[in-house]
Write a structure and sequence with these properties.
alpha/beta, Helicase, Ruva Protein, domain 3, Phosphatidylinositol Transfer Protein Sec14p, 2 domains, globular, CRAL-TRIO_dom_sf, CRAL-TRIO_dom, CRAL/TRIO_N_dom
Length: about 325
């Protein structure tokens, strides 16, 4: 880090040290996991190194965590198990492995996620649990293993099946992305977009100018399944299943390598971790009903504009001939 960045971190650390409320101090320990300066820099980056704005963002994040009991979310299983399976079948996300630098590789089935088998609260609960498991378990473990701070991940976004019906999911996706932006800033090092149909190219072209340059620099649209490019940063065993086949196909949930499946080792480990932490509270079985409700932040004006732009572009592209065909990465790039 440069001298200016180090000075900014010193200043925000001085401000956060002045926080006297014990619940905020306690939850901040959950956030930084011993890597204080690296996590302070995340909030500074998210606010273009403006110390006062970053400090305000961090304090608001800590209050959100306390008000919504985020520190206990990893002891709140989604039950019964059939409901958890329904969530996994309709909210396609998983972890396929690690990059050679030790960053977790998260795969997201953007085009084929339906979010139609549970209430919005369960999907939000599941998403935050994955975030917290990543930050409290996976990243500290990899930091220790590699002997250096590892505080970010990479995400591979599978656009297979992206179509006009995605409009029905925009509200939920906006809620989740707003939660991430405000409370888990700068946790993703790079976004790799694969299996992108024409409709994605059309949306990306009009949305990209609305995004912060810091964000657009992280997005890499790869040709086809992106297999060759991704193998430059990870081993074959860490490739998401929809990249291994060299083509689209995230709709097939039968192979053991399918990182979206509830039977994948990552989801089994996560579910067992949450269930174990519930049971250590002295109760044998979780309640049969009830999701973990989290307050939904209001999206900012910029995000509202992005959503409107995407909706408009999806409608324009409804009758486009090449709607479902993968696009060449060169045509989706600036």
């Amino acid at each position: 880090m440069g001298m200016v960045c180090e000075e900014a971190i010193d200043k925000i650390q001085e401000l956060i040290d002045q926080v006297e409320e014990e619940p905020l101090k306690k939850t901040f320990e959950r956030v930084h996991q011993g890597y204080l300066r690296e996590n302070l820099s995340r909030f500074l980056k998210a606010r273009d190194w403006n110390v006062n704005q970053a400090h305000k963002m961090l304090v608001e994040c800590l209050r959100w965590r306390v008000d919504n009991e985020i520190d206990s979310i990893l002891s709140k299983p989604i039950v019964p198990s059939e409901l958890y399976r329904d969530v996994r079948d309709s909210q396609l996300i998983g972890m396929s492995g690690y990059t050679r630098e030790g960053l977790p590789v998260f795969a997201i089935g953007v085009g084929l996620s339906t979010f139609d088998k549970a209430s919005v609260h369960y999907y939000v609960q599941s998403h935050i649990q994955i975030n917290e498991y990543r930050d409290r378990v996976l990243l500290p473990s990899m930091s220790k293993k590699n002997g250096r701070p590892i505080t970010t991940c990479v995400k591979v976004l599978d656009m297979t099946g992206l179509k006009l019906s995605a409009l029905s999911q925009i509200k939920l996706v906006t809620i989740i992305s707003t939660i991430d932006d405000l409370n888990y800033p700068e946790k993703t090092n790079t976004y790799y977009v694969v299996n992108a149909p024409y409709i994605f190219s059309a949306c990306w072209k009009v949305v990209k100018p609305l995004l912060h340059e810091r964000t657009t620099k992280k997005v890499h649209v790869l040709s086809g399944s992106g297999k060759d490019e991704l193998l430059k940063i990870m081993d074959y065993t860490s490739l998401p299943h929809f990249c291994r086949r060299g083509s689209s196909g995230s709709s097939h949930h039968t192979q053991s390598a399918d990182c979206f499946s509830v039977d994948h080792p990552f989801h089994q480990q996560l579910y067992n971790y949450v269930k174990h932490h519930y049971e250590t509270q002295g109760q044998a079985e979780p309640a049969k009903q009830g999701s973990f409700h989290v307050g939904f932040p209001e999206p900012g004006a910029e995000r509202v504009q992005i959503v409107k732009t995407i909706e408009s572009e999806l409608h324009k592209s409804e009758h486009c001939n090449g709607l479902g065909n993968p696009v060449d990465a060169r045509k989706a790039s600036p």
